[in-house]
Amino acid sequence: MSGRPSNDVAWLAEVQRPPDRVPDSMPAPMPALQPLLTDGDGNPIDSLPEWQAKRAEIRRWWLDFLSPVSCLPSRVPTLEILGEECLGAITRQRVRYEVEPGSVTEAYLLKPTTPRTTAQDCPSLDSPSLDSLLPGVVVFHSTVDESIDEPSGVVGPSPKNLGWGLAQRGFVALCPRNFLWPNNHRLSPRWQTFKQRCRHPRRKGMAKMLLDAFVAVNILSSLPEVDSDRLGTVGHSLGAKEALYLAALDERIRVAASHEGGVGIRFSNWDAPWYLGRQVRRGTFRREHHELMGLIAPRAFLLLGGDGFDGVQSWPFVEAVLPVYKLYETPARVGLYNHHQGHKFTTEAEQRIYEWFEAYG
């Protein structure tokens, strides 16, 4: 893989075409999105400097909305290695680290070994013998009891073993545990959210997820085998929400994919206390996530769905951000892939994600 994308995926034009038809019944109402390329007085924005000024305002608004404290931690925690396996061409470590004072989590770290390395002399991730730097990716798990065991390939095989699959394709993958899981095999959203609110009363649950995600990126970018200019993120469902926010608000992310998170605020349970809270259901709340997608431009972002939480109803979000992408002197690497098979994570979606990351990672 080269340092910069040279070839687009063969199906880029396909994911930038409007749907052929809109079903009679929709999972959620089609949103009416405010144009991104207008200023505060309603005048059109037609230059990149003008958009960059508005972009800074949008970014600041979302960070302030999520949390009254900084959402940009710079710390790189020390990794405690709890276990290591050499699995042919992949080395997989289970690690523990502190995301913020008093808050500890676990993750799986997967790294491709060199072709000349055998299972008998599996190298430590702390002493890589790689010939060149590798791209890195933060892989978020979905709402499953197994949490990090699924994306890392500990359980499976499954199309959702995305960390394992990307490691096989030359990426260093970090699969961190979401804070809603007090351990790797138990989900406790209300209790974990309550504990966070006691520590930080005004912090949204999504802000905690974003803080943890920033730390995951810090870890990846600090690894000696990782090219810190070639970072990505991906997730399904819950993990898709995290991938959207991380890609939008951390400019170190170069490529991202979000599958069935429900990009529209009314498409899924964004009003849950562990995400954005009930405020987003009020009639006075007029922001939408096409603003986050606009923040991602001109970096590569693929939205995927099956007409579960994302799909036909998500097309206006891509349509809204295409003009923003076209302000940049690069191809518009954004689109919507719809497999029409509901919320399930399909092998077709898995393959599209791998092709997206291999093209732009």
What features would you describe in this structure?
The protein is an alpha/beta fold and 361 residues long. 27% of the residues lie in helices and 19% in strands. The chain has eight helices and nine strands. Strands 1-2-3-5-4-6-7-8-9 form a nine-stranded mixed β-sheet, with helices on both faces. Helix 2 (162-168) links the parallel strand 4 (134-140) and strand 5. Helix 5 (238-249) crosses helix 6 (290-296). The radius of gyration is 20 Å and the shape is globular. Mean pLDDT is 91; it is low at 115-121 and 123-130.
Summarize the SSE layout with pairings.
Blueprint: H1 48-66, E1 80-87, E2 90-100, E3 103-112, E4 134-140, H2 162-168, E5 172-176, H3 189-199, H4 205-222, E6 226-236, H5 238-249, E7 253-259, H6 290-296, E8 300-305, H7 315-325, E9 334-338, H8 347-360
Helix pairs in contact: 1-6, 5-6, 6-7
Main β-sheet description: 9 strands, mixed
Mean pLDDT level: 91
Show unreliable segments.
115-121, 123-130
Helical content class: 25-40%
Element-level helix/strand string: HEEEEHEHHEHEHEHEH
Question: Within the largest sheet, what's the order of strands?
Answer: 1-2-3-5-4-6-7-8-9
* Overall SS class: alpha/beta
Indicate the radius of gyration in whole angstroms: 20 Å
| Discrete helix count | 8
Instruction: Based on Cα principal axes, name the global outline.
Output: globular
Number of β-strand runs: 9
**Proportion of strand residues:** 15-25%
First CA to last CA: what distance? 8 Å
Which features does this protein show?
9 strands, 8 helices, 9-stranded mixed sheet, alpha/beta, 361 residues
